[in-house]
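Follow-up to my post from last week.
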Amino acid sequence: MPSPVLADLAAARLHVVTGKGGVGKTTVAASLALALASTGKRVLVIEVEGRQGLSQTFDVAPLGVEEVRLVAHHSGGELWGLSIDAKAALLEYLQLFYKLGRAGSALEKVGAIDFATTIAPGVRDVLLTGKIYEAAGRPRGGRGSKQRGLHYDALVVDAPPTGRAVRFLNVNAGLADVAKVGPIRSQADSITAMLRDTRTLVHMVTLLEEMPVQESLDGLRDLAAAGLHLGAIVVNQIREPHLSPAHLTALAGSDDDLDETLRTELTSAGLRPTGPMVKGLVSEGRDHALRLDLQDDMAAEIAAAGRPVIELPALTDGVEDGGIAVLADELLDQGVR
Amino acid sequence: MTARKDTEHPRLEVDALLADPGVGIIVCCGSGGVGKTTTAAALGIRAAEAGRKVVVLTIDPARRLAQALGLTELDNTPRPVAGVDLAAGGSLDAMMLDMKRTFDEVVETHATPDKAEQILANPFYQAVSSSFAGTQEYMAMEKLGQLRSQAVADGRWDLIVVDTPPSRSALDFLDAPKRLGSFLDGRFVRLLMAPAKAGGRAYLKVFSVGVDLAQRTVSRVLGGQLLMDVQTFVAALDTMFGGFRERADVTYALLKEDTTAFVVVASPDRDALREAAFFVDRLGAERMPLAGVVVNRLQALGASALSASRAEDGVEQLIEAGEGESLTAGLLGLHADLASTAARQHGVVSRFAANHPDVPMTSVAAAATDVHDLDGLREVGRLLSG
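User reply:
Got it. Predicted complex:
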């Protein structure tokens, strides 16, 4: 059953995916983009940290500054990919707004481009989000086209991890201290308007483990405080529950009882029960019970955050071999449009 | 549970590493989310309880781990960790890096009082010292240098364990300080300072056309105020350039000494191990001493002799016998899942091992619950030493 709260998602155009390092942000961003593309939309998925996580996920050549088509879906939807590079974005920006052919290369020569893209605080983030702004606002038919409508129906950003995401998305605050007026400031203002629009949603990816959940909840608070709109909490890598409540009760019983039960049942299973096998299965079961308890606590904390929750299964074979498509289908089943 | 017992692969002997009086610094690095901080804290406790006088420098610990170490406030000062067994004559201090304060201290140390005041009040400095993408790495290095000097001076510590910042890439820890150093010493900074030093510099004349154009452009794009702030900042910093670069160079050199040991931490998945491989190769290229790789949170199996496919067959038989709801069916299904995860992890770890035959490795089995107290850290330390 699609959750009614996911209606917000259907209205969104810009999806920003963040979360603690190692929780699967890139996988979730890729799956979300693929899910949206399979509903007939033209979608752009963007990475901003130059990790080439998307090209590895989709098993294509490294992405560059040119948008490339990753998937053409039979619904008519298309998925395009882009890896934004701050330096290329700055040169493109200077060319676009200042027509700086020669000054661009002069700037490069004296190290000003390096300065602006790696050292100057906030400037790098304005450039990266500025490129997203350009792609999001690009009219159908390309720059300067008179056609109605927009080139992309939806954009998905594989954003930096939670700790840096707030600064990344709060470009105005980053610049406020250093640039009070001037062109880069007004550029930052337009970007901020886009990021704070209700059609831009920040999704938080987490695992049902203490540290990621804690960091996610802190992150959600910081994002909301920065004036950003929160989307879903995506709980990733959920393990299939193998044990029922009755099983868990049985596991809490005495070792001797369990030994007897397991030996009988393992024989029916066609296996020859040994001491280590029985002990091993019981200890795996008890560890699993502890993990389930912890997961319940974590799930309750997530539910208390009051955001729509999307659950994605752990893929036993990893994300290779069509894992992204499995997760995209899962997202569609849960009402993502 | 060790992944490597079945092969001839060299093992990272953690206890030998911690006991080696010739090792004074252990740097824990790796990509985000692999358990660097936990590993650093676990190594610190184990070393302290074995008799070393240890200080652990953490960068951005999770709240409960910080609490376990008694790090309730970010005050940039190492403090004793309560609850550590000091019977062997060791000690354990821990601290959390305050990057802004560390940067301020560098300025205060290297500039005259009024110059320092001028720098600290500069808006551009304030932004750089609290939000520049590489400041955390640079200041972690700086703090490491400071702790080392203090250790040499007063003998309070004989082992420093450093956690590295949660960077985009593990390599940032090595590269960011140089990047800041080369910026401070670079041509662009000279260019920004040109108005203050106009004339007399022949090399500037060569570039004067480009410089002029570049300067006008920078001013147009960034706005005049920002440019002026940067110029004032750079002019004020000029007097301490030497100090800055020298310190960065000294710390970088420290990382190459035999008394330093890098421990690369990874989780048993493709991406984290790829990042670990980059880092291992880079350490080799820089001739930096790698102690080995820790593969964290490896899936442990209770019934390791039972394969996933035999467990699945067992489930099938139980279902056919009408016992699909039995406890054993549940446990066998769970085991099949765990065993195939373990097999996949074993595959990626073995590939890494095969590509790095000389790199010692050890692994830590995943705990059923998260680690957030000293006992949990002791358990990780015990697993690390195998």
